[in-house]
Amino acid sequence: MHDLTALLFDKDGTLVHFDRTWGRAAGAVMRALAGDDPHGVARLEAVSHYIAEEERFLPSSPLVSGSSAHYGPLWAHALGRPADAAFLSEIDRLFAAEGLMNLTPIGHPRHALEQLKSAGFLLGIVTNDAEENARQQAGALGLLPLLAAIHGYDSGFGSKPGPGMVTAFAERFGLAPRTMAVIGDSAHDMAAAHGAGARFILVRSGPAPVDDLIAGSDLVVDSVEDLPAALAGGRASSLTGENAV
Predict the structure, then answer these.
(1) Are residues 197 and 155 in the same domain?
(2) What is the pTM (predicted TM-score) of this model?
């Protein structure tokens, strides 16, 4: 993988701790949307596969990899509301505030991305979060000066598992897809990378099991903090066959 020129990071589960950030935020968002209706809250928790007493999602939750465009209709049905643009915007607005309040990085992503940028990589974020939410969180983590672009589900390129976010980055900066890698923790991230013709680097830091993703990955590391050494020729926690660095 020595011909890589660009690294596109998923955000949640890759740079941001999913449960400590969104698990805590979700309860507050559900209560805000349901108002004084405890049955509405219970229905939201059920369709979200959310364990309220532990403030976390089951790996099967549609919120683990999907955007509000994916799980929003489920929430709308649970509350008896129309699944329109206004409802999705309300979800994004509430999650933006609560997510920023509970923002918890995985390790020290700024240090890792500083090393990667210094090594000459062009860096970006491709996330199923809303673009503005992602910008706010990247700013809070000190990542914005390191990033060439941030693509969210609402940036006009579609959401993962579609390849649009990755393809748009390649076209914007004139890059061959095979010189790019998506770094993520889910099957959605892998599908977006492969669909665009890019490489895929798996991190084990997300909320869901990843054993079934290893065979389709070009490189596997425990976290983003391991990536600078791995791409510099150091030993990663796990490398896959002929595609090892």
Answers:
(1) yes
(2) 0.85
